[in-house]
Amino acid sequence: MRHLHSIPAAIAIILSAIVPIRSGAAEFFDTRAADRFLEIGVHGLVGTSTLLQNYQGTYPAITDLHMSAGFAGGAGASVTFGLRNFLALGTELNFMARNSRIAMAFRGTEQMPTSAIHLSNRSYSFEVPVYISVRFNLSDDVRWNLQGGFFYSLGLSGSQRQSMFSSYINELGQMVNIYETAKTGYYNDPEAFINSMYRSDWGLMAGTSIDVWRHVTVGFRVMFGLKNVSNDSESGTANPRVRNLAALGTVGWRF
């Protein structure tokens, strides 16, 4: 997820360029009644997502594992209720696409000769964050927001692409290599490798944003799932734990 470091850095550059535009008389921490009770906006989100899992600790046959973050993005609308000028309650409805990849190596056995597998996961969902926003006026034209709260996610559809590589020595002493591919569903599909995923998820959201002039807003947020979304009903006694994690930059327009 190293490429994500550029998102908060870009926000810092934008902020340093914008703040000097106008040295306004706005109070930095304004405790008066909210100037606007209701704000409506639209926004886009782009960043990366991954899965936090304990597969290697749960399954001794896994000798090596590499988890890779993938693209995450979406769009949505927001409603913000001004409680005071420094305090607001916000909620959103976002349509999101998330991707992740995982590569695993296994000890070969006669029953399971597979020695490596690569999984590409893709999912689509609706996400509803609800958060408190604390606001600071950097000038008359620039407002800095700190946001914290919770989110709920409902999975709509998704897929898992499986690429399996294996090799073994046959009765003639020859090396036999096997390559197979398969595609399964992402949610509640018993054919998914190790486990599929439950549709619902919930967790914590933390972020920051900058409102520029009256309409433009840019920000960065982290979404950390608290629910174990691993649907392991077909895996017997093993119980892996899987959680969602996403880091997203946002750009929006407030009406």
UniProtKB/TrEMBL annotation:
Organism: Candidatus Amulumruptor caecigallinarius
Lineage summary: Bacteria, Pseudomonadati, Bacteroidota, Bacteroidia, Bacteroidales
Pfam family, one: OMP_b-brl_2
Name of this chain's protein: PorT family protein
InterPro entries listed in its UniProt record: Beta-barrel_OMP_2
Superkingdom of origin: Bacteria
Domain Outer membrane protein beta-barrel: 36-230
